[in-house]
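Fold this: Superfamily II DNA/RNA helicase
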Amino acid sequence: MTFESLGLHASVIQALTEAGYTKPTSVQEQAVPAAIEGRDLMVSSQTGSGKTAAFMLPALHKFASEPVVDQTGKTPNQEMQASRSRGDRPRFKAAQPKMLVLTPTRELALQVTSATDKYGSHMKRIKAISILGGMPYPKQMQLLAKNPEILVATPGRLIDHMESGKIDFSQLQILVLDEADRMLDMGFIDDIEKIVAATPESRQTMLFSATLDGVVGNMAKRITKNPMIIQIAGSATKHENIQQKVHFVDDLSHKNRLLDHLLRDETMDQAVVFTATKRDADNIADRLNIAGFAAAALHGDMHQGARNRTLDSLRRGQVRVLVATDVAARGIDVPAITHVFNYDLPKFPEDYVHRIGRTGRAGRNGVAVSLVNHAESMNVKRIERFTKQLIPVDVVVGFEPKKTASAPRSGQKPGGWKPGDNRSAPSKPGGRTFSKPGAPRRDGAGAGGGAGGGYKGNRTNDSSTRRSFGDR
Ligand code: ADP
Ligand code: MG
């Protein structure tokens, strides 16, 4: 993916090349095209992931592509200069910014302003200024008198200027709330509401926050229209409120019996079971229904109406076990989901983080269980390397895997794992064993159908759909 392929204006690309940026970060990849289309955005993504460019590049692109000219045929800046040179009585004309970025702190505002200067260095008409608490008023009046296109402001000081008529938001096209969660933590909610209320309904709104849960999520929904929600889980996200476990299984029958057993856990309220394929989602949901669970499938082959009905039933608690594929379940936010099961491991380690994030919502605790064949232990290691956390192995009495591994796992570190990283003790002593990577498969074709008592799904080789794990 390149910046060119995101459709950005040539002057923006030139500035990025000079800044030494070679390719967009993931949040930029997702946010920029949507923002160029004019969509509102709700974005959560970790610090340092490049959020400033994610909102500033599309804005600069827009301003570079369609210069706004006022009724006199001149840009507001030219008009102001012209009136000055005509010797008109100097009178302060309220600044009419096209874009406003709200930030919680002065430091961040200055950072955003200088990033804007960098990204907009090949656009002569675009000026960005910071309006900050602590800056002398005369200096700010000078800046505002230049009628900058882009204002970057902390909420308190901005309100002062709005109330004294120095800023008029009637021409505002884009509103950005950067680090919205921190602004709320700092008690800016009323100021933000007031500022938002002073901007046109027609604006494009982009909100960035470490989390989109709780209060900040509610505010985000109030001030955006049909937003595109982008959540990029950082590999550093610890998910400390989610208890992660691996259960090794010998074959499909073992996996199915164990899943049944774990779904009967009395601490389970609602669960999502992830499968690799749509067909498996359907088959497993059918089997679970026959076994007496209120289960339903959710995947991309279902019509939108059916998907919405399933999600509604899940929210109302009528569906207790949702059997879903990655794409369909992305972003599901149902607080009563206490358990996530990886019936199949995800194709990519990032998806593991998205999956387990379906539980432990809104500060609650959650459990995330991966049912893993011995031959897949390398894939577990890749996940551990990505999350920088070891996933403890658990064993349920009566459901022990027959195969015990030769390489003891205690004392081993996943690549990149450092002492001090979150690591819980094994819940059963016998469980901390691990098969050697590359050990011959014992659970391949035939295993699923062979052992009785399990689901009679169409699986032949449990990991046949996952050969590309980690291929990116
Ligand atoms: P965030 O707001 O997500 O914390 P920033 O927008 O402040 O992140 O960016 C973090 C750093 O990454 C900055 O130094 C910025 O210049 C740099 N950066 C952003 N996007 C890219 C990119 N596509 N390529 C290289 N560096 C980038
Ligand atoms: Mg930032």
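The longest strand covers residues 242-249. The CA atoms of residues 159 and 195 lie 7 Å apart.
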